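Need fresh eyes. Consider my entry:
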Amino acid sequence: MATLQALLDKRALDDLVHITVTALDSGEWDVYRAGFAADATFLLPDHTGSGEKTIVTGVDSFIPIVRAVLGGFDAVQHHITNMVHRLSGDEAATRCYVIAEHFFGRAPGENSLSVGGHYDIAARREQGAWKLSAWNFTPAWTRGNPSLFDQAAGRRAP
């Protein structure tokens, strides 16, 4: 049976993931940054389908990368479901499903891209608060126009 503290920790992790992803979608970069430990690592898939991943260390190194791409879309929504948290003291491992929707409002042709898969997320308690320490996205499927990632990066104003 779960302890009260374990239930509180799992609820705090739910909030942390949802708040962080909502900030990602809305471009609230200060809120997004606040969800992560400074030394967080990010494992990013190559969206060409090669299966290769890039590792980025440090949230301040990651934000310009994700901002350059997602900032070029007219709308982005990440839907998170089926969160499962495994707690071990002041550390946690989370797996959840994600469907990410990416849209160009007025682009000619196919102007949307959906990507589904799962996140493997690590978190640790720092000074009494949970912080995300690793974020790994593993895509399972795509639907729509995969070239939109490159187009979005090209649309993003400096």
The chain has one domain: 4-155. The first helix runs from residue 4 to 26. The domain at 4-155 is CATH 3.10.450.50 (Nuclear Transport Factor 2; Chain: A,). Strands lie at 36-45, 53-57, 75-88, 91-103, 112-126, 129-144.
